[in-house]
């Protein structure tokens, strides 16, 4: 997690609020997604690029 940056804002902080795409392993802060997510969803999650 220490080297994972949010694909939207580029920050590496807030790993407790970051989700990883199950396809490409890119990281995203929940608040950087549009629409924002309130919590990390259960199961498989795929970003809009995949």
From TrEMBL:
PROSITE patterns listed in its UniProt record: ZF_PHD_1, ZF_PHD_2
InterPro entries xrefs: PHRF1/Atg35, Zinc_finger_PHD-type_CS, Znf_FYVE_PHD, Znf_PHD, Znf_PHD-finger, Znf_RING/FYVE/PHD
Residue stretches making up the PHD-type domain: 3-50
GO MF term (any one): zinc ion binding
TM annotation in the entry: none
Keywords: Metal-binding, Zinc, Zinc-finger
Taxonomy, superkingdom: Eukaryota
SUPFAM superfamilies: FYVE/PHD zinc finger
PANTHER family: PHD AND RING FINGER DOMAIN-CONTAINING PROTEIN 1
Protein name as annotated: PHD-type domain-containing protein
């Amino acid at each position: 997690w220490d080297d994972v940056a949010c694909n939207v804002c580029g920050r590496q902080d807030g790993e407790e609020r970051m989700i990883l795409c199950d396809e490409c392993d890119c990281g995203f802060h929940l608040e950087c997604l549009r629409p924002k997510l309130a919590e990390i969803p259960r199961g498989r999650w795929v970003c809009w690029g995949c």
